[in-house]
Amino acid sequence: MELDVLYFESSRLLGEKLIGRLGDLKILLVTGEREFYKRLVISPPRLILIGDTGPLNPPVFLYNLRALEGFGRLPLIYYGTGDFSRILPAEGIFSREESQFNDLKLTLLRLIHRSRQKWDREKDSWPRKIRLPSPSLLNARSRVQVDRRIVDSFLTSEIGGINFTGSTFDASIEKILEKLQDLFLCDFCQLFLNNRHHTFYHLHFISRPEAEQEEEVRLLCEEVYPPPEGEEVVMTFSPEPLTRDTGDKPRIILARELPFTEGQSGFLILGARSSRAPSLSGTLSGKILKLTAEVLEAADLFYRKEVETAMMYKAFTQFLPSPIIDDLLLKQSERALMTGEKRRIVVLFSHVRHFDEMVEHNSPEKVVRFLNAHFSNMVKIITSRGGIIDKFIGDAIFAIFGAPISYMDNALRAAQAAVEMSLSYGNISLTDITLPEGGFSIGIGLNEGEAIIGNIGCSDKFDYTAIGDTINLAARLESLCKHYDQKILLSRVVKEHIAAQYYCRLIDRAKVKGKDEATEIYTLLNDGEAYTEKWRELYGRGFLMYTLGNWHLATDYFRAARNILPGDFVVSLLLERCEAFQAEPPEGWDGSVALNFK
Prior knowledge:
By secondary structure, this protein is α/β, with parallel strands linked by helices. Helices cover 42% and strands 22% of the residues. The strands form three sheets. Strands 11, 12, 13, 14, 15, 16, 17, 18 and 19 form a nine-stranded mixed β-sheet that branches. The chain has a five-stranded parallel β-sheet with strand order 2-1-3-4-5. It has a five-stranded mixed β-sheet with strand order 8-7-6-10-9, with helices on both faces.
């Protein structure tokens, strides 16, 4: 059988699930390493697919495949989870996330088609026997001719790909030494490092030795590179128990100075008792030392930046929300700080109704206490849904969803925040303040669209903010809540993103102040069940007739809807318009009215 793909995945469930989605490709699934090599000889495929549940050490396995004479030219695809930043010798590296599946399938088809073009010329020349590689690619060099570029790429991936995130500098040193031990089957590593920020001796064992063995190793390392006077030796041990034969006498595999840049010095010792530990050539030793020096410099730089970032974060958290600080810390200069970008965001405006009356009938102290309590309540809701507070404008809140951090469901998050705000605005204590005759209420406007986001101001004072027509329309919608006697108003684009979760009712088509084009205005109703199917049908037909200019028929539908829900303010407003338009039809009717007020 001419095989398209040899697929190695130890989890048969995962393997069969992927095969079922790939269609008509000829794929053979194997679940063991020896079975994989056997099938590789018996049925040479056009492409090899390696899942991360297959080999015990996927990077070493992939590099070993590249080292096999006759099979190194086969296209390789790696498919799994984990760190995808490391260098791997594969034509494609794909995540198991659903968003990556189509790219995986297209890459497979493209590589298989390309492989078919030279299949007949090369398939008969492939080896019929192979020698199974060693678990370590570096050990395999003694038995298999490995291209130097493969070894260099492997070392760069393994040593240079160490992740320092979330580590202290000492923990990063342990990571580096543990990686060197894994690669060269070492039982102990010793590192001396001296730079502007750190000076120490670090001795790391693969597992805790007996006291006599520990002393023996220490004396051996001190003989090769004695520590400076008074310098304490840091002792650490890997968490994994020792499983290999350690032999008797410890021996040194590598002991040389690290080639640091100016201002740093260091010395690395690798040693072992195990007879399996490889001997290292001068060329290979030089590569190891160079990479180790580079990764130590990177760890030092990473740690210093982490400390500086923590200090800046602490200094700024009292002034700005943490997402904005995270975004600002990515900027490297004043010029970058003052650069804007265009982003798609959702804007939320909230405003206290009849606030002027509250100011008039209460002392400044009471007004400030009230606003602080109100803002604290509202901000907690907004930030819990992933929004940030752009600014407070008097008694109004200007919030953003989608910058600096954006989510797939920005509109839904904003709508959920708006609903929670409309239900909980009265949770603060109101016993200490005189309320206006209409009581305490808020209006909320939501709009989505592109806006310019950036740090706007001057070098001495700037604000992270959004500007553009998207923000203006959200503010207009909020101000119209009073006109329509609604708590939440939103634009059509927001409605389209949340209609599956909320009943969004079209209440008007209007040209708001400052806009020549009509805007569809919706209200978000959390209690949508109060509107029966019959009512929705009558209201929908009435609104359609209203926009078409058939105000007589629209009046009939609206009156029937009002009989079901007598207290609906919007229906009463539309009925008034229909009656007025019947008496005096507007010129150039296009289904919308002009609202020339804020």
